[in-house]
Known about the structure:
Transmembrane segments (chain A): 6-21, 33-53, 59-78
Keywords (chain A): Membrane, Transmembrane, Transmembrane helix
Largest sheet of chain C: none
Pfam families (chain B): PepSY_TM
Number of helices of chain A: 3
InterPro entries (chain B): PepSY-ass_TM
Largest interface: A-B, 36 and 47 residues
Number of strands of chain A: 0
Distance between the termini of chain C: 55 Å
Radius of gyration of chain A: 16 Å
Radius of gyration of chain C: 16 Å
Structural class of chain A: mainly alpha
Distance between the termini of chain A: 50 Å
Oligomer: heterotrimer
Organism (chain B): Rhodothalassium salexigens DSM 2132
Number of domains of chain C: 1
Number of domains of chain A: 1
Amino acid sequence: xxxxxxxxxxxxxxxxxxxxxxxxxxxxxxxxxxxxxxxxxxxxxxxxxxxxxxxxxxxxxxxxxxxxxxxxxxxxxxxxxxxxxxxxxxx
Amino acid sequence: xxxxxxxxxxxxxxxxxxxxxxxxxxxxxxxxxxxxxxxxxxxxxxxxxxxxxxxxxxxxxxxxxxxxxxxxxxxxxxxxxxxxxxxxxxxxxxxxxxxxxxxxxxxxxxxxxxxxxxxxxxxxxxxxxxxxxxxxxxxxxxxxxxxxxxxxxxxxxxxxxxxxxxxxxxxxxxxxxxxxxxxxxxxxxxxxxxxxxxxxxxxxxxxxxxxxxxxxxxxxxxxxxxxxxxxxxxxxxxxxxxxxxxxxxxxxxxxxxxxxxxxxxxxxxxxxxxxxxxxxxxxxxxxxxxxxxxxxxxxxxxxxxxxxxxxxxxxxxxxxxxxxxxxxxxxxxxxxxxxxxxxxxxxxxxxxxxxxxxxxxxxxxxxxxxxxxxxxxxxxxxxxxxxxxxxxxxxxxxxxxxxxxxxxxxxxxxxxxxxxxxxxxxxxxxxxxxxxxxxxxxxxxxxxxxxxxxxxxxxxxxxxxxxxxxxxxxxxxxxxxxxxxxxxxxxxxxxxxxxxxxxxxxxxxxxxxxxxxxxxxxxxxxxxxxxxxxxxxxxxxxxxxxxxxxxxxxxxxxxxxxxxxxxxxxxxxxxxxxxxxx
Amino acid sequence: xxxxxxxxxxxxxxxxxxxxxxxxxxxxxxxxxxxxxxxxxxxxxxxxxxxxxxxxxxxxxxxxxxxxxxxxxxxxxxxxxxxxxxxxxxxxxxxxx
Lengths: 91, 582, 97
């Protein structure tokens, strides 16, 4: 149960972060609030996992799951980012 | 400007060239590593139906040990010096007892016998299901799991090269992984900003590069960890520790060993060692939720005997050691810090656990496997974008058509929506590559990229037929090795010789799918265990393995057929337009 | 955009072969020498004197690798590597002898 709640929080937090990056709304206050919200969600998720699994395992599981969730979220929702001209950075 | 400063460009070149030189070997090691995390237990239970899933509640450490010692003495006539019991783990109820004869000078010897016990049958005489004699340190590496497990683990740790060169090679690959990850971190300045976006630019090579950056950013910590622990695991035991121990102790190897093991020599006075089951119960009360890994009895049945119970406390990644006085059974100490004399074993145990994700159960293993596959895709995507750029620099927009099409199979490996990539608009038909070396490299990368999954799937399909053909695990392991490398070589040869490349890779991908399905079917016919039998017996790790094999098979068949059709359609279109398609 | 002090024709890695020889085999030997020698003088306890150099080895190699390739003058690299190897070699010889 704790795992599911934590998982949802990770997905929500990352989804929010992706959305802020994608849309970049004008109001700075809203942006700060959104970043804070996603950070808080991730922190609470980490806390839940660490509480449920113990410090060492919880931390490592969290460090593994966040990249995986992030990849999933970014692949699903992050794709309409601004296009940037590619430079051949001096190969 | 900072972005194009000299140091930045140097870092970029280091990242590109290090990656390009090591990519193919690193890809083999990473992809097999992603499978090898399951080799010891889950795949062992899958490959050998005789392995029970559940440990019998009556399994007794004391009886397992005494049973093996009685056998050892009957077989060798030598007294047992020390013994190690490896506890059965969830998913595979197989225990091992290694008995080492006492050496002449009272020190611990390495030569001995390893007994395999079926812990699902309890601990009567019938539980001993196998034995292997020799240097126990080597036995752990080769003989104490199924041929499939041995093959996978060795492919990952030393690519089946003769010792110690295989270890040195994987150690070097670990170092280059560290170099790649660090230089990648430096050249990718806007790590967090870009990590939250996956740009979807027009060109395929640019898209390939965006995926490389995204996976690289999120997999950074994992790759740094894997590179560091992998380097240490490869180099530490084979090279560094012996050198450092000898020099640090002024050449006195015996003194170095004494400090590390922390066990005084045998007393030479016979005294029966305390009941191990009572010691295990003692550990459980001291550390609720303790998961034992192994138990080591030093100087068995001697007045100076010491019993070390090693395993994981709840929530711990590193192992702790509970030390008991062997003669009285009195608790002596708990060793786990860097300051005490279990430092070496703790550090090395943590390296192993972190590297293979064998702590925290199946969830961590699954995460490690997914991250491993993603990292393998990362390595290959980096190579592909390098080939694209170099090829273009050398000879205009070339290898791009050949190279970018590789995206689909590899993306399928990385668990990304392959179909969407494969089915993406074709863009302009490619031109004939004039930078031939890069075209060849692109084909070779494609061959290895699909060949390694093909080899792994072929090995899975061959595991049960081999077990049925030969009772010798060494012969079966050798045959699996042959199957793997032949399939990889075949895939490379086909990718280089046949055209269009996309269709070849699509066909090979379909072959991977067929092999995966064949693995499940072969298991059903030869071992008589179909997935529904496992389901009825609630053997979840076996059910999961079968499900993953069938699911992967379906996905890969779909992606492979699509890719093959795409390549043929494109060639037909190209022939109509009069162009040559690579 | 090359910065002012380097002309546009200056190669990215001057004396590339020498640098490569220093960066891969050279850095390996130097890192091994430091790892072995460190166990004689690291300011930690007896057991950690064995472990610390082992754990440091990958970091040492990676640092020396980047240094060999990116240092402005390849002479510095040769000098530093020679000092590391010879110094630690002498220490080891004294420790064993």
